[in-house]
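Entry 14. Ran structure prediction on the chain below.
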Amino acid sequence: MKIVTFSRNVFIPLTNACRNRCAYCGFRSDNHELMTPNEVKSLLSKAKNASEALFTFGERPDVYDDVKRKLKAMGYSNFLELVRDVNELAVKMGFLPHTNAGVLSYEELKKLKPYNASMGLMLEQAVELECHALSPGKKPEVRIKTIKNAGKLLIPFTTGILIGIGEKPYDRIYSLEVIADVHANYGHIQEVIIQPFQPKKGTPMQDWKPPSGEELLEVVRKAREILPEDIAIQIPPNLVGDVYPFLKAGANDLGGISEVTPDYINPEHPWPSLSDLKAMLRNEFLLRERLPIYPKFVRLRWFSDEIADLIYRLADEEGLRCSTT
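Output, structure tokens:
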């Protein structure tokens, strides 16, 4: 049977402050919240079975004065210091961090690398779109530069495209070709997420229709044609329903699933249970748990000394997660 992978994670939304104002986003808020290290520790302590600490937050939140004040009160001069601190905390508690930090410079990526098993940045689309008119961090060239810099630093990386935000079908193909080209040069992209737009109440795009299942299936098919075999194609099971047709179309990863936290980006769509996912596989696919770093990069040792012992403890001989952990 073909293997389909997933990871057990705990979703940590460090802040909802974001410099971008995407027309579809329901996560960003002008009422800025910022988690403390103690709050992160408390959340991690509830995730007994997870191996991945997924850190997600708004891009460059410390452009706002109130966030700067909160950071200063915690003893940090900037937000990235907090991120690195809680990354290190997660490692000490036995979790492998995966950080989605938005657009970062080469030096910023280098600072976060030691305490991250992998990192991520959605390309979304490699063309400029109206929904990103108020989002300086969504310019394709700056996002592609971040993804390339991660490759230069040998950081196992997740990216993806967002479907249904005003792009044309040929834009989707072009975006996948851009990702394939970057990977051809750096070899660091471990997975590409095919994510459907979901309308959120209170946003400018609340009345837009999400893409149809057939549209998504076609993108998955194209992705499998365009992307090399060593890049996994991920579909979010809480957003697509029955995963079986997408696996038949070429997807082979179901992303992170949490037993203790919701999908804070799409909280109206709960995670399916593992038993439900296994039933969807129709006895044609074998579900295996992985780490936030894919087996290829475990074998290549694309990780720092700071997290090496933890990876060796959590990984089996194939580079997937040990069944005994």
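The CA atoms of residues 3 and 286 lie 5 Å apart. Will compare against last week's run tomorrow.
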